[in-house]
Amino acid sequence: MIKNPVPWPNNARVAVAITFDIDSDSILHLAHPNRAETMLSTMSWLKYDAIAVPRILEMFKDHGLKQTFFFPAWCMERYPQLVDPILEGGHEIAHHGYLHEHPNEQSREDEEYWTSRALDTIKKMTGQAPRGYRAPLYNFSKNSAEILCKHGFLYDSTLMGDDIPYVLKCSNGSLIELPSHWAMDDWPHYTHSPDMNYMMPIKSPDETMNVYMSEFEAMWEERGLWIAVWHPFVSGRLARCRRVSKMIEDMQKKGGVWFATLEEIALHVKKCIDDGSYKPRVDELPYYEGRVPELPKDWQGHGPNHKGC
What secondary structure, in 3-state letters, does 239-262 show? Predict the structure, then answer.
């Protein structure tokens, strides 16, 4: 079904990345700036990152994995004790905004400011510029690609337009897109938080892993790309993390799996593009400039019975 798979290293069947977004309590301050300090139960849930991150790092060490962690830079500044062990373990730290702000709700100038501010923090705390980016809540804007290219990013891992890496082309350069999708995010499977307006039916770890492993089996068969988008305070909970560890064991036993950081995957894809062994699909951004002309001027998003359409 995948007609042009990437030739993965050592003839691997699938590339696998288990990525974590370390949002901590940034999302609560962003959603409830005037009430966050009073929302202690939700705050404590988000601060579980302090327990989960060391657990996840130990799990990765036990399995011999190096993986990618996306940080809002404010969380790095607030919780430096989470940053150092990640770097010491040889893992990648990538860009995830400053305070988990949503780029597609900002002006270009504001997006540029917050992207640059986060970049400065990451450079200061890691000693190097990040190569990768994931937009908070997947809210990539029509300006994001140009801003990322301006700052020399190699890849993005926000969009959901393919089963394998593809290229985002914009006016000032291009990015390698490493796609995932909502089924691979732990939020819909586990998150129940009235304060954050998320009321998902909580699944058992086995039910959730059935979803992830069905995606893995398909990608293994078709030589695709499997990227998990998880959060320490969600998937780092004890029962869930134990089940993740078993999942890794099952993947390793199956064989033909290349576990890698997203930077490693993007660099490999770039090499394959450069040597002609992989010809990716190219998306030119932005997809649209303004509303499509077919919609009536008074259209406000009503149903199909609207008199003008």
Answer: HHHHHHHHHHHHHHHHCCEEECCH
pLDDT one-digit tens code per residue, 228-256 = 999 999 999 999 999 999 999 999 999 99
Residue 85, preceding peptide bond in cis (omega within 30° of 0): no
Q: Please, what is the angle between helix 238-254 and helix 49-63, to 10°?
A: 20
Q: Name residue 93's beta-bridge partners.
A: 69
Query: Nearest CA to 221 among 229, 210, 213?
Result: 213
Q: DSSP letter for 185, please.
A: B
**How many of the other CB atoms lie within 10 Å of CB of 115?**
25
Domain ranges of the chain: 9-284
- CATH architecture, range 9-284: Alpha-Beta Barrel (3.20)
pLDDT above 70 as % of the chain: 97
As a whole number of angstroms, the distance between CA 159 and CA 80 comes to: 29
Q: Which two tokens stand for residue 272?
A: 């394959």
Report DSSP letters for 88-119, one per residue.
Answer: HTT-EEEE--SSS--GGGS-HHHHHHHHHHHH
**Where does the chain have alpha helices with state H?**
26-31, 40-46, 49-63, 73-78, 80-88, 108-126, 144-150, 187-190, 205-222, 232-235, 238-254, 262-275
The DSSP bridge pattern shows strands 132-133 and 155-156 to be parallel
Q: Tens of pLDDT along 114-128? A: 999 999 999 999 999
| Regions of the chain with pLDDT less than 70 | 302-309
Token pair of 253 as six digits: 């036993």
In sequence order, the β-bridge partners of residue 167 are 176, 282
